């Protein structure tokens, strides 16, 4: 029998409250923690990450203290929420001692409920490799290592200005696999003067180790880098596309799935931390310049911490680590969701749009129609999934979801 309320209620209006005011969340998404360590042995000429040459020793103890204070400052924003993964990135986190990483992880575990099966990754540069140190990271609770190999070719490593040679990369790769098992290698392609055959040799060298996960990044010339100012001779677009096809074929034949634009994995070894980004999950970023995306019952906020390490340390001491703190607007949230989700080969369930943005899917209806008309997205009402064409022209596909897409009639 209907309740009295239902009898007198007006005819339903099929507009979510979210379209009239802010977003509404029934449940919050999974939460991950990112920790940024901003120092490297030397700055690579192509890199625009927030990384700084450690002149002498990095202030390891003071920085771990600051990270823990930073986390404490953030606790009210994530109160009671379980953390599904931790990623310690940089920079070069493997510059830090195992004792410092142990103290950091103990500090995190003591303050937030970490899922018993949480994936805990650390980024390492082969130039900082020592077997005992890797074993110490494992003992501290790191259960996945991401190794910045870049290439196994001595000449390409030199052209990239890497601090390690190919032998060091091989020794670090071997030790990483024996100590952690769950390992990713970062490789870059379309390197200065690289041929398709050389790129294929790099893939073969990587595959010889049988790592569970491989990330392949197209080398890009980023503003404010030495390579941008003095561009090296890079392969043309056609060669870069041939390299991509060769990489894909070799990895596919070896049983890896190209599950995301730059990521290939054996079944079940996809990076859970990165999947959470692409599925528009939440993350708290602590450390210099770290970014956060956090959902609350009625809003999503993005935060950025102070970027320069010295300034970050001072600001944490002053109890004010945030440089930016703003709510994601209704105009931006659809684009941000699609930007991430469309990187995934399998896409995401259509229902996750409302679950993760707090708005109905109608928010991106125009973009979806335009993408389907151009054959860039599957016409499946239950899925948001790029077609093969959409994956090839991903930037064009993503741009259709901008609040003001290029070429839109005014
Ligand atoms: C923070 S670094 C990883 C760890 C460590 N710093 C290292 O380089 O060994 C993340 C990865 O981004 C990739 N990367 C950095 N700059 C790039 C660029 N300009 N173009 C493409 N990939 C880049 C590299 O593959 C690098 O391993
Ligand atoms: S070691 Fe990694 S983070 Fe550091 S400068 Fe080189 S690519 Fe960038």
Textual characterization of the structure:
There is one protein chain. By secondary structure, the chain is of the alpha/beta class. Helix content is 39%, strand content 21%. It has 17 helices and 16 strands. Strands 9-10-8-7-6-5-4-1-11 form a nine-stranded mixed β-sheet, with helices on both faces. Strands 12-13-14 form a three-stranded antiparallel β-sheet, with no helix packed on it. Strands 2-3 form a two-stranded parallel sheet. Helix 5 (131-140) runs parallel beside helix 7 (166-180). The radius of gyration is 23 Å and the shape is globular. The chain binds S-adenosylmethionine and iron/sulfur cluster (SF4). The site of S-adenosylmethionine has 17 residues, from strand 4, strand 6 and strand 7. Residues 40, 46-47, 49, 89-90, 92, 123, 125, 148, 150, 186, 188, 217, 219-220, 222 line the site of S-adenosylmethionine.
């Amino acid at each position: 029998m209907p309740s009295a309320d239902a009898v007198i209620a007006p005819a339903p209006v099929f507009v979510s409250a979210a379209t009239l005011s802010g977003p509404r969340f029934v449940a919050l998404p999974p939460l991950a923690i990112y920790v940024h360590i901003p120092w490297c042995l030397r700055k690579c000429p192509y890199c625009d990450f927030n990384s700084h040459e450690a002149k002498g020793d990095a202030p390891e103890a003071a920085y771990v203290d600051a990270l823990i204070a930073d986390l404490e400052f953030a606790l009210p924003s994530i109160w009671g929420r379980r953390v599904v993964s931790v990623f310690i990135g940089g920079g070069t986190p493997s510059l830090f001692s195992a004792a410092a990483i142990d103290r950091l992880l103990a500090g995190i575990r003591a303050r937030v409920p970490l899922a018993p099966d949480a994936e805990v990754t650390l980024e390492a540069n082969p130039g900082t490799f020592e077997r005992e140190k890797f074993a110490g990271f494992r003992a501290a609770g790191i259960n996945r290592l991401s190794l910045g190999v870049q290439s196994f070719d001595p000449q390409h490593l030199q052209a990239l200005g890497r601090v390690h040679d190919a032998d060091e990369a091989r020794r670090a790769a071997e030790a990483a696999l024996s100590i952690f098992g769950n390992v990713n290698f970062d490789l870059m392609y379309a390197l200065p003067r690289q041929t398709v055959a050389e790129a294929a040799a790099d893939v073969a060298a990587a595959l010889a180790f049988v790592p569970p996960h491989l990330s392949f990044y197209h080398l890009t010339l980023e503003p404010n880098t030495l390579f941008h100012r003095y561009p090296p001779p890079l392969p043309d677009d056609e060669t870069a596309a041939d390299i991509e096809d060769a990489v894909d074929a070799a990895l596919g034949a070896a049983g890896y799935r190209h599950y995301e634009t730059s990521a290939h994995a054996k079944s079940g070894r996809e990076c859970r931390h990165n999947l959470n980004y692409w599925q528009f999950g939440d993350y708290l970023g602590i450390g210099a310049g770290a970014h956060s995306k956090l959902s609350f019952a009625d809003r999503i906020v993005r935060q950025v911490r102070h970027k320069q390490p010295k300034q970050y340390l001072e600001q944490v001491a002053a109890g004010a680590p945030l440089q930016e703190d703003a709510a994601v607007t209704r105009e931006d949230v659809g684009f941000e969701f699609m930007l991430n989700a469309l990187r995934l080969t399998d896409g995401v369930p259509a229902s996750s749009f409302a679950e993760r943005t707090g708005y109905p899917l109608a928010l991106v209806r125009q973009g979806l129609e335009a993408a389907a008309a151009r054959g860039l997205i599957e016409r499946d009402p239950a899925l948001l999934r790029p077609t093969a064409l959409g994956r090839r022209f991903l930037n064009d596909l993503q741009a259709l979801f901008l609040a003001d897409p290029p070429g839109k009639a005014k």
